[in-house]
Amino acid sequence: VAAAAQKTVMSTVDAVICAAAATALLWGLIQFYVISTIPLRSNGDSATTSLTGASKGDTSEKLTEIYSAIYEGAESFLQAEYRICTIFVVGFGTLIFFLISWGTKSADGWDFTRGGFTALSFVLGAFTSMIAGYLGMKVAVYSNVRTTISAQKAGWTACFNTAFRAGAVMGFVLCGLGLIVLFITLNILKGHYGADWETLCDCITGYGLGGSCIAMFGRVGGGIYTKAADVGADLVGKVVHGIPEDDPRNPATIADNVGDNVGDVAGMGSDLFGSFAEATCAALVIGSGAKIGTGPDAIVTNSWDGLLFPVAISAVGIFVCLICSFIATDIMPVKKETDVELALKTQLISTTLIMLPAVYIIATVLIPDDLHIDGVANAVDILPWNSFVCVGAGVVGGLIIGLITEYYTSHSYAPVRELADSCKTGAATNIIYGVALGYKSAVIPVVVLSAVVYASFALLDLYGVSLAAIGMLSNLATGLSIDVYGPVCDNAGGIAEMAELEPGVREKTDALDAAGNTTAAIGKGFAIGSAALVSLALFGAFVTRIQTLSTVDEVVTVFGNGVNMLEPLTFAFLIIGGMIPFWFAAMTMKSVGLAAMEMVMEVSRQFEEKPHLLDEHPTERPDYDACIQISTKASLKEMIAPGAMVMFTPLLTGTFFGVQAVAGLLVGSLIASVQLAVSMSNSGGAWDNAKKYIEKASPESELKGKGSDVHKAAVVGDTVGDPFKDTSGPALNIVMKLMAVLSLVFADYFWQVNSGTGIFKC
Length: 762
Description:
3-stranded antiparallel β-sheet, mainly alpha, 21 helices, 3 strands, globular
């Protein structure tokens, strides 16, 4: 009877996961269909020239022309980027195959099966990440122009819903795709390894590594692309010549709008897919060591449904996010400007509140009786209530981090308004105040993360930390929906400006975009917080794996009683690990600076050679393609070095100095990355919204409004903040995750090199 009941529960779990994935994909298609019903036709004609220099064309033709230019630019960049990524995946996948096969060798020789399965998981994770990013870009570009058209209608509901649905397509499709590919991969491995969960989950870590590698290239490459164009366009256009943002006379404006799609949409999608994959893999690896029963009656392994509990949390989260999405579009639709931020905030709060009882129910149903696990600190019993508390701590902790991020980055609150006020005395005070704001904004999120780590670790050791990370990402579909909403609104405003629509359309899209900037900052806060928890869980899995290997080989290491950070080698690499995020940030910031300098020179050259471009009704067309090529070449070239540094640092450290050095490296990187990522992301978001707050002011007010010296000071701060919030800051969460998951994947290889002491036998 017990066996039959267990089989029924297992099949139910499988059905829930598959149903959630199918529902997510179907819901994404439905949202896309609703968007597609909006005709690509403007409500009126423009009385100015088109981008081609033709006289007074139909506005619909202009919109189609701009849409096509943005689409072609984004398509060509992603194709070039993914060609490089494909070459990397093949090469690095081959390296994984050989190193894992050698690292897990036994008396019978190399374990090519395990190396092959790990490489397969890596390839599947990488290509799933690329597909998710590519589809997100396509949907965003398709929806941008339709959001502009919807903004021409009376009221706010149509344009908000269009942008929100565009985000929902990305959010639900990514979650559904990631979930089903992970589930299929697990079943492939189960078919070979049976109930050997530990080996199965060691192989599945390649899935997280693949997703994280593509996220690194997507975030860095896309971030350099978009911010080079954005900074160049702002400095020459707005600061020097005083023309509006996204003015069609600016040669960099198309590249700027392309960048929103390849960086903020495709890059963000790959980033959050990597977070989902790594969080799930961390929980699976640690949970694979759980056992049912004690003494002679103990079952050797965890049950399938107990193992899949973390995956089931993500599955239930899809249903919760789907239900809550109706609140924004139907139950409480946006009817005025002040409703926008409230609608987006309500999404986060409602999904958090509904997730809590849902998690308790599935924990009660799925977690077997008498389940316990030997953690790195203590042996603990895994019960429904303590599992619920760990997941709930992550869910609530994520919400608190999101709300604190909103407070520091939204112009509805004092910090951003004070930042805008500092612009009255120039750009220098604006930058000083903005940096201070970012540092201060890291205090409460770090305290919250510390509390979540302490509570979850005290209850369930590192398995609890991994469940907290899953909890923080449980409403990922909603989080990604409001993340993508931001760049869609930004592009919609740019299209309205380039098509020279009536000013009311741009004012409406700017208001939507201002809320989008805040929600994007909230999304980055979620991503950074979950990355910290995931990195800690992956670090624990790495330590656990080394402990297991040392026990099998009967070799005594300092990992026998946990990691001793006062060990000279470990402490030395702890300091080196703390340096890695600053080195990475320096490389990416410099890359943006170099590309932006080239962009500034190109835009200036065109204005000098074509002086009539600055006429109110220009008779010449800017060379948009030249600016697109500058961003494309710079981003593809500059993304390689930072990515290689992050990936090869732990690999070379483990090879030459051993596992103790890797442990110090990971902890140092984690601690420094969290603080730096939060402060950079929030400084950039605050600078951006301070600029928008000033732009809303009237010329008679103290802030003087657009075109004033106060506004120019805010623009300078915004250009400094662009690489903070869209390149270096958000990519830092990938740094800590990628280094940790890579170390876990290659743990057996590290151990094989002189029993974990490295080539130098440290």
